[in-house]
Amino acid sequence: MQPPVLELVDLKKNIKNKEIIRGINLTLGPAEILGFLGPNGAGKTTTIRMIVGLIRPTAGSVKICGYSIADDFIRAMSNVGCIIESPEMYKFLSGMENLRQLSNMDKRITRQRVDEVVELVGLQKRIEDKVSTYSLGMRQRLGIAQALLCRPKLLILDEPVNGLDPAGITEFRNLIRRLAHEEEMAIFVSSHLLSEAQLMCDQVAIIRQGSIVKTATVKDILNTETVEWRLDNPVKAARLLKEKWGIEALRENGNTITAAVGENRLELINQVFVNEGIELRYSIPRQNTLEDMFLDLTEGDEIA
Amino acid sequence: MLRLIENEVFKIIFKKRLLIVFGILLVLITAFAYGQDNSLNRTKARLAGRIGITASTDWKKLCEQQIIDLKNRLESPYGHEEDKPATRVRIEQLQYYLENNINPLDSSAAKFTTQFMEQSIFLFLPLLIIILAGDIVSGEAANGTIKLILTRNIPRWKVLLSKLAALLMLEIIVLLMAAVISAAVSGVFFGYGGWTAPVATGFRVIGDRLETLGVVNVPQWQYALMVYGLAYFVSIVVGTVSFMISVLVKSTSASIGVMMSALIGGNFLSHFMSDWKITRYLFMVNLRLTDYLAGSFQPVAGINMAFSVTVLSVWAVAALAISFVYFMRQDILV
Amino acid sequence: MLKRITWFSLLIITAAGFVALSIGFFKAQQVTGGRTPTAGKTIKTENIPTKTAAAAKESNAVRIVVMGDSVAKGTGDEKGKGFSGYLKDYLKNQTTKDISVENIGIDGLKTDGLLERLQDQKLHSLIAASDMVVISIGGNDLRVLRSRGDSTKEAGFGNLEGIYLNNLKELLKGVRKSSTDTYIVFVGLYNPYLDAAASYEDTQLVSTWNYDTQRLIEADPKAIFIPTYDIFKFSLNRFIASDGLHPNSLGYQAISNRIAKSVENVFNGE
Predict the structure, then answer these.
(1) Is residue B100 part of a domain?
(2) Is any Cβ of chain B less than 8 angstroms from the Cβ of A157?
(3) A11-49: per-residue pLDDT in tens?
């Protein structure tokens, strides 16, 4: 069996006796796009740095295509393209010279491949200009170009849509999906833009205070539906939901309750409420978003 | 590996570091040559004023007379035995001047090129090397590009080694620049000759005395080659030490600042605490290697070329070891 | 493409530079360390005693020892002879005996330096075998004053002259210890700075110096003080070498003439 493209086993990191990462387990297969989400300071960047060998883990292992990053750095990194934090390049060189520099570091990268990648990110017109004259969006594109040079099996992108305009974001999203589907690239994206992650990724992993608190496919999240009622007797309604269908309802504020109920049962429930003498103002079925889940899981963390 | 070195060399070139060094060299050498030309003229004028004849026309007489005096001294049975080789060497030099019609007071491009490096070896040359080496690693850390090169399929030691090799290469270029610029510029003032003129060398420190028994004449070009060879050795040592600082420190200005203050502080220290023995193990006080060639120093027991070269080598090796060990283990957090 | 060419030329230049600089470095190591030339030293020291011993054995000869500073040595004479050379030439024409002159003048020597030399066994035997010892010393003792200001000169002079006269006394004693009957000829000081730099005070000081020296020398019945001050006073341009300090060939000849005239009868009489 082919080993997974990326495998993290019980990855831990202490910095100055403080546990920054407390045991992360993760697997990513070919052609999968994983959104790595978490509030600031949760350990996203530290984890990514451990994956690409910039930081050595205190415990646990990182394997890329079956090769350990600690013991077989070269073979492991041969399969990785990445942008860490922001796409820093040599500002005193042109975009092309930057890519040439990097292609010099890897025998597999041909001149042709460099041109190919430039075209892929749409930088042909400005590639001979100095990077210091680039806008943030262009630097981002150059960063992606650089990451793609070696045809990686694993692409690691840290906040890739920062600085891109809406059109650029759409373009980028399409590029990522295409790379995953056509070239079977596994893509690991960290982001704080949840709506973006929802549109881009197949799965998400949410990290909080150094551990992963949830992994789920985006499809599952989107399939969970909730209904919100506004009625005069929320206590009675909650009791009814519990008694008749075994559904836990959440009391929101005042006269509002929510519960995870499929749209198909909503009519029946409403009928029962009315029969029981509850005065129903409205009921709205609502599709869950990543944002809801994220806020649930990381409640109270973000404000710092 | 050669590709990696090429990358590093071009990074330094495109960062205009080499251009800065070139500019500094050009300005300083021109000023230096002009100043020397001036002071030479003044010396001649002073001599002429005192003696009543123009020294420039009468130098031959002076030379001849000096040769005779020196010969007398050689023949005298009561001169110090060990002064004799130096005397013989001096006679050879004077004879060369006479035969080739060179006024020993005059400078030449060859002489100037050598002198410039002799004057530069303990402070100016190290400063240039620091400019070159100061940001070679810390610069990548400061602008974040270190993440770019350490996430390639290349081991860290190779990355560091290519940087070191690039530095050692460019040090050669700097020395070449210094030699070519000083020869070219000073030639305008002093003429382009003088490469075969004899220069005395071969002094040795034995005990706390300067031993002159082994003194011989070598042609100026050979002497210059020795001076520049020593300068390269000094460059390597200063280069590796500032390379280490560059690895340890995250900002370029801090790296250059640390090295400069170490260098200048070391020079002060050796000046004010010369009887404090530990200062002799500092690398900054052992940089004047060319003084051993010229025999132009106050001999101190136990300090000679071999001592200084050993001290400097130990510093270089230690700096390299620290650089590599630290760089291999370091967590990149920038 | 241009970059490739640049790169390869850089590589070649640095490779060549590296080889050249390494050669230079190792050459420098070789020159400043390594072989110790002790062999040459021992051979040379052996040569000297044989030479002096040979000189001492010859009995039918007039043996003259010239010692002291650069004037004794003959520095400044473009013919390289010095007064010792001219003296030898002159005496040769006067007598049938062999004339041998040992010149052991040393540039920059002062009285204390000469005293030190006098301890030397070789010099001792040389003087013992000599018929005449010519001494020129003191110029460098006095020259220390030149770097001082006029106000401190006067004060410093007394002190300096005291030390000098003391040393001179010891010197004479030393020579007499080696030989009781050799003639001692002392060459007095001239003032090379008369033309421009010398002030009245300086002239005074030199005269005092010479006067006190003469009194000391003449106390020995077989010693004579030869003044040179008067030779140079009006002939500085003719007699001073281009270094502005030492006599030239003519100057040395003049000194030599004086010495010869004073002593020729001593040797002719023998």
Answers:
(1) no
(2) no
(3) 999 888 888 888 899 999 888 899 998 887 788 888 999
